[in-house]
Design goal:
mainly beta
């Protein structure tokens, strides 16, 4: 999904809460949003130096 100005929009659903992810955002469980790309979201778990890439399904990028 994209915003009207063309930026990638990614929403995180946790229970009943919906959060719009932004680069640099610190999530409450220790993850940081490092990048939001057309096909994936890059996160890092700063406490252990672990990097994670979450794919965005192709249907969601259209």
């Amino acid at each position: 999904m994209q915003t009207p100005d063309g930026q990638q929009l990614v929403l995180l659903v946790r229970g009943e809460a919906v959060v719009q992810l932004e680069v640099g955002m610190e999530l409450e469980d220790g993850y940081r949003v490092d990048a939001i790309l057309a096909d994936r979201v890059s996160l890092s778990f700063t406490q252990f130096g672990v990097n994670i890439e979450l794919p965005i399904p192709p249907a969601a990028t259209q």
